[in-house]
Structures are given as C-alpha cells and as structure tokens.
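From: lab user (bench 3)
To: helpdesk
Subject: output format question, protein + zinc ion

Hello, I'm new to running complex predictions and I'm not sure whether the block I got back is the full result or only part of it. Here's what I submitted:
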Amino acid sequence: MVLSIALSLFAGSTLAWLFSAMAPRKALFDLFFDTIWAGNSRIPSVAITFDDGPSPIYTPRISTILRSCGVRGTFFLTGKNVDRYPQIAAALHEEGHMIGNHSYSHAILPLLPDAEIEREIVLADEAIERATGCRPYLVRPPYGYRSPRVLRKLQNMGKRVVFWTTMSWDWANPSAGAIVSRTLANVKNGSIILFHDGEGKYLETHSTLVDVVGRYIFGAKDRDQTIKALPFIIIHLLNEGYRLVTVGDLVAQFGGQERYLCL
Ligand SMILES: [Zn+2]
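Helpdesk reply: Thanks, we reran it on our side. This is the complete output you should expect:
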C-alpha cells in the first residue's frame, strides 16, 4: 500500500495534478463535468474565496475586514478545523458568508479509493452542519487535485466542484505587495480569487513531528501578508466597479439557478 502510494506520487499523472493545482487549467476530461471555473464573463462580479480554515488566528481578522468593506466571501473549510473551532465556522455563516467543503483532513482525493473520498466529504459535511446548521453544496478539492473518477464521485454525491481563476499565491508566503499586484493583474469579470485563511496539512496549532517537518519543507503558513493585502485588493476591485459576491451568486448569474448560501 505504502509502496503503491509512493510509486503513484511519482507517476506522470500525479505530476499533472500537482501542476494543475498551481494554475488550474481545464484538462480534456474536465469538459465532461459540470464544475465551476468562473462566473459570467459579461458581468463585473468577482468572488473572493478562502481555503483551509477556520483558523482561530486569521479567520476572525478576515471576517472583520470583509464586514467593514461590506462584502461577502466564500470559505472552503476543512472538517477537521471545523471540529476544532466550530464557533468560528458558525460566526462565518452568521455573517452571511458562503461555506464550502474542503474535505475533512485536506486529503489528496485522487489517491483515495471511492469509499474514502466519500468519507472525507461526508465527515466534513457533518462537521460543517453541526457547527452552522447548514450542509454545504460546494466542494473544492484540496490543492485542486482531481481526476475523472474523483469528479464523477463528487458529482454522484450531488456536489458542485469549484476551482479558481486567480491565484493570490499567498500560500507561498510572498509580501503583501506581491499578493496585491499578482492578484489584481489577473482579475476580470467572473474571476474566482483563491486566498488562504488557514493552514493546509501541516497545522501551526499542532506540534507533531509530521507538522514540524511539513512546515519546514513547505514553509510556515503565515497569513499575516494575506490579511495586510486583502483591504487593498477589495477596495481596488470595488473602485474598479466590480461587485464582490459569493461563488453561489456567480453560479446564479448563469440563470435559472437558485442562490446558494451554504446548501
Ligand atoms: Zn487547501
């Protein structure tokens, strides 16, 4: 089992997923699935999204910024972090932000058998529902890693899978100025911007050997720069005439779809 996972990590298809996660581009198989890549290109709306929370350090600060700017975001939460900080997830929902599922343990879904994929999604759904009273409809696979089998499974579970158009690159810990310029350089009508308000796999709030080594290899997940950059990005977008909406609002703009707050 360990050997097969190690081998598959070096397989070409996995490398393709790695690159697709950094700058997701539609593969041929994506055409066969009803996933969300962007909003309507004729409507000046943009969705700002946050992955990996809730975090007790960063999520409340981001929520305060969004409230003071009068905008709503979409938060893809991991079930594990929701179980740790249910009150922060509940507060996001009460503030009117949209909540999506980012798996329970930030799993690499294409490496899991179908039953485990289902478990990751259902456990996160249940954690979010316990905390907020609301069962998420949207799923963003961790790292954007996907395969036809994963997308089919999520679709069969009634989920809508969301990717992004615009990286803020905040996961690589650049300066706040770099986050602002990289983000604004790639925004247009219907853009979905990816930020992070929490840690992925290697939690700063954990100090197991795996966490310490993971942070050493992949860098500390300090979101202070994201928080510094966020007001500049939001104010600039509003001044440019964009409306900042949730991913559910973007989906609704295609017409005929109900508005999804969390469901
Ligand atoms: Zn993530």
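A quick orientation on your result: The two ends are 36 Å apart (CA to CA). Let us know if anything else is unclear.
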